[in-house]
Amino acid sequence: MLKHFLSVILIIPFLALPLTASEYGGGEGGSEGGSEGGRGDEGTGLQNRTTRLIVNILTNDFGRCRREKKIYRWDCYRKTYRFAVSQLNGRLSYSHAQDALRHVEQELDQIIAQHRDRTKPKKRRMLQSYVAIKPEAIPAARARTERAMEQAQTMLLRAPSHTQSHYVRIADAINSNKVLLRSALLMLPNRLIRLALVFAKSTKLSL
């Protein structure tokens, strides 16, 4: 009895010691969970929160452009990429990503400048307004946009290795935009496609 009592007395001080990080479920595993939130990769300046924001803009905002008539979509695409670019202002760790997204935006700028249809009124939706491009220019615009997106993906995937865990996700979002562009072209009426082919041939544009 006395022996049992003494053993209990000796154990009590150890019960007061704090638990280790692993017993709390912390340690490296807990830190990784934080990385999935907003912390990102330590030492690189890249954050999961920022990367998710850009991916969501490219995925959701670009997808919403399909609500517009085809002639207005290119201005919607342009404003989507412009907004994504603006979210990376001042973030040096995302400079390569910003350059890649700006490249697409600038190509869309040129497409609209070259093919804008001034006979059509601006389309307003909420706080945004969109200008139209000529219907017969849509396939050529699609081809040029797709090339710009492929170039942007290449820029992202050739960026420094420490950025890849984030940049690959942005490149994947751009790729999903390309898929939407291709599916939109398949939905064009046959007559419009024939007109586009004539237009492309007369202007020596490749489709």
SSE class = mainly alpha
- How many domain modules? 1
Instruction: Round the mean pLDDT to the nearest integer and report it.
Output: 79
Helix content: 55-70%
Can you list the strand order of the major beta sheet? 1-2
Q: What gross morphology would you assign?
A: elongated
Count of helical stretches: 9
Overall strand count = 2
Q: pLDDT under 50 segments (min length 5)?
A: 1-6, 8-37, 186-191
Taking Cα atoms only, what radius of gyration do you get, to the nearest Å?
27 Å
Q: Separation of termini? A: 93 Å
Topology pattern, helix = H, strand = E: HHHHHHEEHHH
Major pleated sheet: 2 strands, antiparallel
Q: Assess the beta-strand content as a share of residues.
A: under 5%
Give a written overview of the molecule.
The protein is an all-alpha fold and 207 residues long. The chain has one domain (45-203). The chain has helices at residues 2-15, 21-24, 27-39, 48-64, 70-86, 95-115, 138-157, 164-186, 190-203, and strands spanning 123-125, 128-130. A two-stranded antiparallel ribbon has the order 1-2. Helix 7 packs antiparallel against helix 8 (164-186). The radius of gyration is 27 Å and the shape is elongated. Residues 1-6, 8-37 and 186-191 have low confidence and may be disordered.
Topology (elements, then pairings):
Layout: H1 2-15, H2 21-24, H3 27-39, H4 48-64, H5 70-86, H6 95-115, E1 123-125, E2 128-130, H7 138-157, H8 164-186, H9 190-203
Antiparallel strand pairs: 1-2
Keyword list:
2 strands; mainly alpha; DUF922 domain-containing protein; elongated; signal; single chain; disordered N terminus
